[in-house]
Amino acid sequence: MIYGFARYYDRTQHFYRTITAGNWASIAPTLLFLPVLYSMSMGWHSWEEVHPVTIVFSIYTYALAGFILTFALKIPWEMAGFLAICGMAINETGFDVLYWLAS
What we know:
Layout: H1 2-8, H2 15-25, H3 27-41, H4 47-72, H5 77-102
């Protein structure tokens, strides 16, 4: 999706920087999610207890994605926010498909 956007708006010269920055920036949210998911897998906390925390971490992750898209692709923040929301929609749809296949 990002490549298609970059190509359409003639930002392909910034595409590799965007992907590299996004990959490096994904370390922080991963480190935030790991203790929460580990505590849930060990049975220390239930899903109802960790769900609000995962929502906050998810919002942080998408805000970080919008920030990276803004400065790496050199686009307005409104467009970067739209792309981050599109990424969220794709992610949630993927989860829905996986849950449907697993049931």
